[in-house]
Amino acid sequence: MDLAKFLCWVVLLLGISFVESRYMVYNTSHTMVPGKLNVHVVPHSHDDVGWLKTVDQYYVGSNNSIQVACVQNVLDSIVPALLADKNRKFIYVEQAFFQRWWNEQSETIKRIVKELIHSGQLELINGGMCMHDEAAPHYIDMIDQTTLGHRFIIREFNVTPRIGWQIDPFGHSAVQAYLLGAEVGFDSVFFGRIDYQDREKRKNEKSLEVIWRGSKSLGSSSQIFAGAFPKNYEPPPGGFYYEINDDSPVVQDDPDLFDYNVQERVNAFVAAALDQANITRTNHIMFTMGTDFRYQYAHTWYRQMDKLIHYVNLDGRVNAFYSTPSIYTDAKHAANEAWPLKTEDYFPYADRINAYWTGYFTSRPALKRYVRVMSAYYLAARQLEFFKGRSQKGPNTDSLADALAIAQHHDAVSGTSKQHVANDYAKRLAIGYVEAESVVATSLAHLTKVDPTLKPTFQQANNLLAYIYCPSSEINLSDGKSLIVLAYNPLGWKRVDIVRLPVVGGEIAVHDSEGHEVESQLVPFTDEYVALRNYHVEAYLGQSPTQVPKYWLVFSVTVPPLGFTTYTISTAKKTDGYSSKSYVSRIQKGEQSIIDFGHGNLKLSFSTDQGTAINYVNSRTSMTEPVKQTFSYYSAYNGSNDKEPLIPQNSGAYVFRPNGTFPINPEGQVPLTVMRGPLVDEVHQQINPWISQITRVYKGKEHVEVEFIVGNIPIDDGIGKEVVTQISSSLKSNKTFYTDSSGRDYIKRIRDYRSDWKLEVNQPVAGNYYPINHGIYLQDSEKEFSVMVDRAFGGSSIVDGQVELMLHRRLLLDDSRGVAENLNETVCVQDKCTGLTIQGKYYYRIDPYGEGAKWRRTFGQEIYSPLLLAFAQQDAGKPMSFGAASFSGIDPSYSLPGNVALLTLQELDDGNVLLRLAHLYEVGEDKELSGVARVELRKLFPGKKIGKVTEMSLSANQERSAMEKKRLVWKVEGEGSHGEEKKAKRGREIDPRKLEMELYPMEIRTVLIHWERPSAHSRINRFDA
Ligand SMILES: [Zn+2]
To answer: Could you give the angle at which helices 398-407 and 365-388 cross, rounded to 10 degrees?
Structure first.
């Protein structure tokens, strides 16, 4: 018998002699002890905002046959558990759940919870509505969803979250570190998932914890302490799970009962602590005590942790105490160590050999597109909401904000939820959209000064159907009606763009708001479009379209910044000009010829026998480049028959594991249809029965637009398929390519290489895939070849000179990472279901070396923020039903500098305005546009008097100056105390008299604008003057 057990026996005997009560008071009051190994015990629950169940099902605890999970239980039981012992602590992360719960609490509970928060027992960390994914979301969505949560927390509790807690997302983006970390005022960010090879190396070098400098441009001014966990976000090895149905050994410390095990549990705890200490710098380690949907009956956890802390400290080998990541971070900071430096990001993520989580970069491409479309609409709708004046009672844009926030969750836009949950995300977006649409309609009626007696309303096209189906524009104009098309431009600069609309009639003309005829072109509405349109309208709206449009009407529009113009479409008069019909020619299979098409500077040559564009010539820049564009698919790996030493691993919703590449239609022998006209030339190709595409060159544009329709991907052979397109050039890219980080900074990628460790290549394709939100480009000494995307995709450059995008995937096996459902999306009309067909666009262009950024940045904004279109009808001979045919929300003489984008213009409930401006370029990215930009704030708000401008943190929950004052200063290995890198430049404080905002490369500045007089009364006629 060892000494401890002997002593216990002594205590027991004495106890029996003198007292009968077995009541134990566990001492949980320990804090840090210098010189000892300090184990920070951090209780937490990881509550996915939708995954196997919907967000509401998780909250209320329904649908438990799928997963026993009820977040309401977690929050309900945490309160008494914390009250029972003031040393206990808990962190809570997902505001979508917390806010649902908070709204249901009594005043008494609310008061108690506020006290728990202020005492530090309950800490709200991360603080966004969800723990967003880091591969598929656009950085604007990440900012918005974090802001939504942070502003609620400051309003209700007057606290600002200090810690980033991205414990589950499947790889980590540089934008998360610097933008959604340092720039929101976080002192640290923690996460669980990094590449298994990277993790091993970091464990050996004790470099799991680093200073992460995510932005080349902002450098140490936006660095953050970042900690990757040794394994995952669960309790340490050795059995420390304490949910009611968990089977870890509980601490049995009643000697009257069998299975007394105090020393054994203490030993297991100490062993786990020492193991972790061996791979961690300083004498502080963190035990993440919790995992998915735990603490539903919090007492079971705290009972065990109380005992562990009590007995471990009696044991004395290590010092254990309740803690939070904030306390842990402060301890790391106080240790005054120099930490390893980490730059770039943690993509792609593999959790073991042959298991690269790069499939989800493309999984559910239609949902990814829907989220992106809604994101842009939300940005524009908030602008229009502001121009009209926000309605307190509604309708407003809040429910779209909420739906979009939830859709950024790491099982939502990532494409890794079950199908019914994906449907729930889409439903929420649709509901939010309908309300935002009516905000936009009201605002447009106000801004166009409609005649209230005529009550015309501007109808918008259903965004879900991407203008394939647009009843508002498909009206019969022969009976004297005209169609008014309003185009709103959410960008801060003037825009010349192309509008494409389905129309039913042919003899029509387009006029601008001053009555001048506008050049236009009619492109035939092809059979494959008719089929796709009818199919989707039936599937999504449950109706069959009554008429089929004959043409796409294409015309060029010029729209002022943050403003609109209107165009009138009517039957052409004989004396007038009218829309040019496209000249259509068909080239049969086998016919050999080269077709040159394009207008102005850009000419594209198309080989009919190869079935692809073959040459790109820009006469302005003298860029000539042989190109080739092809499709192929990867057959999805079926790991079920794998025998040792292989670990079974299928390709699935998360994991991309190809089993061979198969070119689609390698001879390219397909009939082509060429349509030419004054504004656009198009080549239509039916690549195979389930892929078609249109290659376009527009007048005045120097890029190629490729529209693809992919699906229904056949699975009759029982094999899942992952469909990619490759665009090849002759660029000597030398294994190197560049991809964006969450739509913002570009990161250099080298094939089969990682800058942080020597990569052991086991998946030469999947292991080279990266998330693409904005674009991907290649360079050699003469040229840049850029491809821009319309949503998040996975992509790579597997061969020098070539860009590859994964467009769609249909899989028949699960990849064993939890979702337990095959990613086999279908669309049903009545009872007939077929594989999901997706439609989308990408764009490519070739520029001289060093000159590609301008197009990527400017056009990238146009892709993200398309023109918002609305339609009204006008009867012939009747007076105009509205008074203002054009509008600009900013001073008519002004536009934002070409390197600045408006990310947020939003009226808050108190009438103040939240404004966010972003510099679009990195340091050195463009010769001119990487320079400082200056924005005259007064010119953004004509007719309004700015009273005060307060610069805020990125999530607008604290003043920037206060945030900077609190910022922890960290030391980096190999650098002096003040850092050896060149300090990043940032814009000066805004002078209240000049009201000019300076922005340096990659800077995003967030300000609250208070009006000189309360705006509540003056708001109504804001733009009537
Ligand atoms: Zn999760």
So the answer is: 150
- Determine what percent of the chain is predicted with pLDDT higher than 90: 81
CA of residue 1012 to ligand 1 center, whole Å: 45
Distances (CA, A) of 522 to 103, 518, 694, 698: 54, 13, 16, 13
pLDDT in tens, 380-427: 999 999 999 998 888 999 999 999 999 999 999 999 999 999 999 999
State the distance from the centre of ligand 1 to the C-alpha of 756, rounded, in angstroms.
26
Give the span between the Cα atoms of 918 and 578, in whole angstroms.
42
- Distances in whole angstroms, Cα of residue 657 to Cα of each of 354, 642, 650, 660, 809: 7, 13, 7, 9, 12
Tell me how far apart the alpha carbons of residues 346 and 354 are, in angstroms, rounded to a whole number.
17
Q: What is the DSSP letter of 374?
A: H
- Output DSSP code: residue 811: -
Give residue 728 CA to ligand 1 midpoint distance, Å: 37
Beta bridge partners of 224: 212
Q: Calculate how far, in angstroms, residue 246's C-alpha sits from the geometric centre of ligand 1.
A: 19
CA-to-CA dists, residue 1025 to 455, 751, 943, 1021, angstroms:
22, 59, 8, 7
Ligand 1 centroid distance, CA of 372 (Å): 21
**Which residues, in sequence order, are bridge partners of residue 704?**
844
What residues pack around ion ligand 1 (CB closer than 5 A)? 48, 168
Interval 332-387: pLDDT, tens: 999 999 999 999 999 999 999 999 999 999 999 999 999 999 999 999 999 999 99
The residue behind tokens 């917390």 is: 98
Q: How far is the CA of 751 from the centre of ligand 1 (A)?
A: 29
> Does residue 879 have a cis peptide bond before it, meaning omega lies within 30 degrees of 0?
no
Instruction: Report the relative pairing of strands 341-343 and 209-213 from DSSP bridges.
Output: parallel
Greatest alpha-carbon pair distance for the chain in Å reads: 115
Q: How many CB atoms lie within 10 A of CB 699?
A: 18
What's the pLDDT score for residue 466? 62
